[in-house]
Every structure is written in C-alpha cells, then in structure tokens.
C-alpha cells in the first residue's frame, strides 16, 4: 500500500514539473535596463587625412609622369606650393612624405610661390630630418620620409639658385652626408648631395675631412658603382676648389 502511495506522489510531482512552462536556455537574455548606454562619439575629421593622402598621391603621380608640365599649368601649380608647405607640418608621416615627394618636382619650376615659401620649406625639412634621421634607419615610413627630405634638400641646393642655406644648415647637411657615405642604403643620396654642395662652391672647414673619407671609399668600397660615385665626387672636389698644397698630396 505504501509503495503504491509513494508511486502516485512521484507521478504527481513528475506531472507538475512537465506541466510547468520552460524557458529556452539557448535564448540570449536581454541587456539589463539599469546599465547606462554610452554612444561612441563620431567626428567627420577622423579619416580626413586619408583624402589628403589620396590627393597628394594623385598629384605626385601627375608630376612624375609630366602630365601637368608647361606654361598652361603654372597658374594652377602655384597655389599648391603653400598647400604642400602646410602638409609638411602634418602629424601623419605619410602625408609629410608625399608632400616632400611632390616638392622634389615643384621646386624645379620657377614659380612665384616657391620664392615666397622656400624659407619656410627649408626650415621644416631640416626639422623633419632632425626628428627622423636616426642612425641605422633602413626601412619603414620614417625611412621613406628621410629619403624624400634629403632629395628635397638636394633640389634646393642644386636648382633653387635664389635661396642660400644658412651656415648652420650647411654644416648640418654636411654632417648628414658624412654619416651617410658609410651607410649603404643611403650612399647614393649622400653622393648626390655632395655633388650639389660642391656645385654651389660651399667653403666649410669640415668639407676637407669629408672629402678625405670619400677618397678612401673610392678605393676601399666593395661595390663598383660606389667606388665610381666616390671617384666622381672627389674629382669634382679636386677640379672645383683651390686646394694648394693639398692638391699635390692627392697626386702622389
């Protein structure tokens, strides 16, 4: 009798459990309403530098392919010099690099805005070199910026005749050249800068020591093209400067 009673009670409990409504355990519960919701702030200027970068890339492509070369385009190129100068001050390395690459071409044109902004351009290029031209730099965005900056300086020294670098800027540039003649990844650019410096006839006390190192490189360098470039630079130095007794020393 007791066994039957226990069985009936168990059946009743089981039936009640089966009849109770069940919640689906796989449904994600709703977010508690007491938790405050914070919306992310949106700003239209967040990605504005991407559009500037694209515009500079397009401008650099047109300059490189000589698509906008000629007197008809000069009125349109002149206002952009100020824009390129402002882009040098950008916090984005890529924008500064592209503006430098554009300036390598624009500075060769005799534009009125070049004469107006060349002082500001030169100062900012040296600021970028002081900030990014670290020893041992051989790749990456910073390396591209440094290479573009040195090319701009070479164009300024060689092609912009109406502008003269200050004495301190000349010495700083010569120090960079002295370091880079031993750096294989930047030797070619260093020799190009030295040719531009010698072409302008700079007379600096440190120049002779740098040329002595170039003379050694013309003999001891491992690669033929490096020795050739070093010989060309040193030959230009011997022919362009009045060395006096120092000239006879190099003949023996």
From TrEMBL:
It comes from the Eukaryota. Signal peptide: none annotated. One of its GO terms (cellular component) is 90S preribosome. InterPro entries: ARM-type_fold, SSU_processome_comp_20. PANTHER family: SMALL SUBUNIT PROCESSOME COMPONENT 20 HOMOLOG. This is Uncharacterized protein. It comes from Homalodisca liturata.
């Amino acid at each position: 009798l007791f066994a039957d009673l226990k069985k009936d009670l168990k059946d009743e409990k089981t039936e009640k459990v089966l009849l109770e409504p069940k919640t689906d355990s796989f449904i994600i519960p709703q977010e508690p309403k007491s938790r405050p919701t914070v919306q992310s702030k949106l700003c239209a200027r967040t990605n504005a530098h991407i559009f500037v970068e694209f515009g500079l890339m397009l401008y650099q492509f047109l300059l490189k392919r000589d698509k906008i070369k000629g007197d008809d385009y000069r009125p349109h190129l002149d206002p952009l010099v100020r824009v390129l100068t402002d882009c040098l001050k950008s916090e984005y390395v890529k924008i500064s690099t592209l503006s430098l690459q554009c300036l390598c071409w624009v500075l060769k044109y005799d534009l009125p805005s070049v004469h107006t902004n060349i002082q500001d351009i030169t100062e900012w290029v040296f600021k970028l070199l002081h900030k990014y031209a670290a020893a041992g730099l051989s790749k990456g965005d910073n390396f591209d910026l440094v290479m573009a900056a040195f090319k701009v300086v070479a164009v300024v020294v060689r092609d912009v005749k109406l502008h003269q670098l200050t004495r301190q800027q000349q010495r700083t540039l010569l120090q960079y050249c002295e370091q880079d003649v031993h750096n294989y990844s930047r030797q070619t650019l260093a020799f190009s800068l030295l040719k531009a410096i010698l072409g302008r006839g700079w007379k600096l006390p440190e120049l002779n020591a740098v040329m002595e190192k170039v003379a050694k490189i013309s003999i001891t360098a491992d690669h033929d093209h490096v020795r050739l470039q070093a010989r060309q630079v040193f030959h230009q130095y011997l022919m362009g400067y009045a060395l006096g007794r120092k000239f006879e020393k190099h003949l023996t």
